[in-house]
Amino acid sequence: MSIEYDLFTNPLREGEEKPTLHARAINIQTVNTDKLAETIEGMSTFTVADIKGAIKAIGERLCFFLSNSQSVHMEGIGTFSVTLKCKQQVVNKKDIRSASIEFKNVEFRADPELKKRLRNARIERREGTSNKKSYNSDIRQKRILWYIKNYGSINQSVAASLNQCTRQKAKADLEQLLEDNQIQKNWCGKRAFYVRHTIVPPAQDTLTESPEE
Questions:
Q1: pLDDT per residue over 142-181, tens digit each?
Q2: Whether pLDDT at 213 is above 50
């Protein structure tokens, strides 16, 4: 799991012989509501329908509060607020009316907690924005173990998304880790999830009589 980037050329400035480079994060995929709900379902007791309903309700309330001149703070995520703009340049306040002001954008300011977690994320280079990342089974399994260590559990859908592979490959990786006793399979209703293997100490003989003093 990492933030991927590539290097891009800056415009050549006057006096420069060679252009400089800048790093830009690459968006390898946009996760939609269905995918988000599916991955959350595997690590909680909520169904996909519950999660999608909650997301829709949050979106509606977010719009309601922003439309009433309020900002919305979501703990651990950030704060949403509205920005406005004048339709034309104004010098005198008396020249401006409500009809001359319009919506500009929704601004998002990330919480320090979120920024701190992202600062600790791994960063690796990917050359070319259209090249799909390909990991071998050993690397995929190490990434799964890393994810479980940091997030507590994983399911098949998350493993496939994490390693940018098919669900069949993710299933094979999880089954191999199960066979190697590195993870164990648990259930939440009908949904399977995987956690680190817990080593159970051997049972001790039960005393049938009090020990002699």
A1: 989 988 888 888 888 888 888 888 889 999 999 999 999 9
A2: no
Burial class (CB in 10 A: 0-12, 13-18, 19+), 180: exposed
Strands of the chain (E only): list them: 3-9, 21-25, 72-74, 78-86, 101-110, 123-125, 183-188, 191-196
Q: 0.70 exceeded by the pTM?
A: no
Q: Are 101 and 71 in contact (CB under 8 A)?
A: no
Q: Which of 77, 64, 34 is nearest to 52 (CA)?
A: 34
- Tell the residue number behind the tokens 């995520």, with chain if given: 77
For 14, which DSSP code?
T
CB 171 within 8 A of CB 165: no
| Residue 171 token pair | 């299933």
Token code pair at residue 69? 């001149």
How many alpha carbons lie under 13 Å from residue 178 in its C-beta half-sphere?
15
Residue 1 confidence (pLDDT) above 70: no
Write the DSSP symbol of residue 99.
G
Question: 71: closest CA among 111, 119, 114, 115?
Answer: 111
- The identity of residue 4, as a single letter, is E
**CA end-to-end span of the chain:** 58
Contact 67, 42 (CB under 8 A): no
